[in-house]
Amino acid sequence: MRYLPLTQSDRQAMLGVIGAKSIDDLFVDVPAEARLDGPIQGLPNHASEMAVERHFSDLARKNMAASHHPFFLGCGAYKHHVPASVDHLIQRGEFLTAYTPYQPEIAQGTLQMLFEFQTQVARLLGCDVANASMYDGSTACWEAISMAGRITKRKKAVLSSGLHPHYVSVCETMAKFTGDTLDTVQPELSANTDRTRLLAAIDDETSCVVVQYPDILGRIEDLTAIAAKAHEHGALLVAVVTEPVALGAIKAPGEMGADIVVGEGQSIGVGLQFGGPYVGLFACKEKFVRQMPGRLCGETVDAEGKRGFVLTLSTREQHIRREKATSNICTNSGLCALAFSIHMTLLGEKGLRDLAVLNHGLAVQAAERLAQIPGVELVNDSFFNEFTLKLPKEARPVVRALADRKVLGGVSLGRLYPGVSALENGLVVAVTEVVTAEDVETLATALEETLSEGVGA
Amino acid sequence: MSTINQSGWKPEMGDVTDTKPATFTGNRALMLEEALIFEIGTAGTTGVDLAEPPKVASRLGGLERNRAIGLPGLSEPETVRHYTRLSRQNYAIDLGFFPLGSCTMKHNPRLNEKVARMAGFADVHPLQPVETVQGALAAINQLAVWLIELTGMYGVAMTPKAGAHGELCGILCIKAALAARGDPRGFILVPESAHGTNPATAAFAGFSVENIPATPEGRVDLAALKARLGPDVAGVMITNPNTCGLFEKDMKAISDAVHAAGGYVYCDGANFNAIVGRVRPGDLGIDAMHINLHKTFSTPHGGGGPGSGPVVLSEALAPFGPLPFTERHADGRYTLVEEETVGERHPHSFGRMTAFQGQMGMFTRALSYIMSHGADGLRQVAEDAVLNANYILRSLEDVLDAPFAHSGPCMHEALFSDDGMAEGFSTLDIAKGLIDEGYHPMTVYFPLVVHGAMLVEPTETESKAALDQFIGALRSVAERAKAGDPSLKSAPHHAPRRRLDETLAARKPRLVWTEPEQAEAAE
Fold first, then answer.
1. Which of residues 335-374 of A touch B (CB under 8 A)?
2. Could you tell me if B169 and B160 are in contact, meaning their C-beta atoms sit under 8 angstroms apart?
3. Is the ipTM, as predicted for this complex, more than 0.95?
4. What residues contact residue A187 under an 8 Å CB cut-off, 6+ apart?
5. pTM higher than 0.95 for the full model?
């Protein structure tokens, strides 16, 4: 077997050193009734590299890949062009096959990268500090609510209706078990967010208000008043960013008073990958740092006075504090954080701002074009690179019909909010720099034809 | 012994053993110092070329970002050099032996990287219509079925993002199962030798945690466990093989006792590599166990993630598992069971743990690994992993204290203590001495039940020659620690950095870079 270096004579020699007759002697502590006599049934035996590759090629061909078709899906995962050097660099074995940097003298590469990542994330989100990553945006969102609970000693969170429904579901799952209360409603297919409801819901029992920015329908709103109201009542503002490229164009949540800002970093450096692995971003004000979950990298010096980096403040973490830890997280998303950081370094401030302007410009053009289709309305007043259309009929069958025409035309709100009739005509369309004018025209034509054919009527 | 020049040639340029002069750059030949991007990049530099944006009226709601963000950019050549230089300051499994106990640092096959990057998997959006992702769903389903076969369990939850997230999944299943029968129980029992994630997870899910003592043999004290079981105990979390590297012989009896008392058994599967293909946890009465795909199934650790932690479940807990999951239909079609059909297909689910479908990029890699090994190869994996660990244990027990060596063979990892070191010398010194020898140290000071623990996990992907050299190196370092060699106290001498001041880092945390003038002002 190509991954196993021991030869049969090695094995014999080693058994001799150990003083065992056979390998079975080493499994003597396994009760006889639990020992399997031979290879497990139900699995094939080993396969060559070529055979495995062929199997995966066959499976891969059964999927419609984003880059092969006009592509307009967003809602928490975005297709951006990732420079070739990003994937090359993250595949360097010294990054790819390293472990968590527990021995800092021989892990300065990962540690310095994490320190740079933390700084980039903190600046992008407009916060003082950021951690070394979480699993993804949705789990980071719950961790933020949980952290706000520790800080305020309160257990009621008010969630904006514009928060990604999967994120809401994750929080609901956890709240069911921790006894937290979540105040949440579904969005309306309207240009207006539920800020009035949010402002009214904040009271002296509220631990935090959670607002997605831009929200699930692509709408953008000023968070300043929400932050002020929350602070007035001793509550925190948690902002959630699922499309960090937007922050090259619009104000950072931290600038508007958010106390904790979490996000999904996938759109910078990390591919779509059918949902994972992604990279959770987590940033906050410095005064809350000791309540943060996850790993933190900090600067220090070595015995010769040279600058170096270590994992720090680990007394918050599970391997030291066990049941008193701020979170149970251990493995995070280090390699995706590296991809994010490399892509961000390639972009730089200028590149990020230009990319954001390009995304916005293309999205505005696409929105105007698609809104010309008879019966199709643009829901948003404001948006970045993603907007919601109201179709004259249910959007979900339309998306399927578009896929039949080889166009991946967006995310139907029926997929995200099944059974909610007020939302079923909503189609969320994302337009990034990978979308060409021709793609938009293809979508417009296909959408117009599909709508006139009575699909899903 | 390990000299590379075996030709007998002698150097002809005279004595070169003089002291090393300082260099202008601070570099030492191939050991290159690298500044931070904030020190070498500028906000105006970029390494990407973008199309001109169309001229449109902004629709950003009046929220244009005006202030500078502070993100330096580098050109592509500078970027490649920056990260390549950083990478060379890292130890990695590709460079050498990485015997970090409980972490299973095995070789990461590059075939896995190749298949995961196929556009049909890497470039697919999680919310595409299921009709357009049948191959991806088939791959998830195939891995799910094989994980069930390998563990002898009833079902599997694929979405957890890492081991600790998998633990959370299992514990939530237990909590949901108890709630369904109207039996709220508040306590989870955890052995003293458990990974820190176990008690942290139980607490995160709202349970109180109590420790179970260990026997002098290094295993769970069955009598003490039985004595504590009762109507307030929701379940136990047991690592098997345990963190002392031993198989819990009484696992079935533990499971039976817990079940008889109305509780559930969670198994931490971090150490599954020792038994994969030879023992099925389902035969030991386990109700839930996470599988670290980034350990047993070779997906790369990436400097701390991403991981993936599918959880196999017993018939009792499977109905409560999370959304979404794949379903295969009689006609060969695959669908995803999500919120829409959960009422009909999976009514007792505790809900969703994460957006989307889990770590697809890890699923493809793990599936590629399992296919490559097959049932026969995986069995050999466990055998070689266990053989290598026992070889290390028996080759070093004369020089290092092995507190449980009398308990019988170890499984996939060998545990030593710092007993017998010279006054003032500890496990940390041995670890740092190993760095100079060109190794990543073993896991140190864990498990907590052993003083100055050193947990060595070789995995199956090491050759006998690699093990022999490591044994020689660890023996040499251990002998220096026993003899009180002062140079060991200041090790490492040859790494990119000497020992780092962790106390300073925690006392005055600097977690982000600040411009020097700002940093001074803040002092």
1. 335-336, 338, 342, 344-355, 357-358, 360-362, 364-365, 367
2. yes
3. yes
4. A161, A162, A193, A194, A215, A216, A217, A423
5. yes
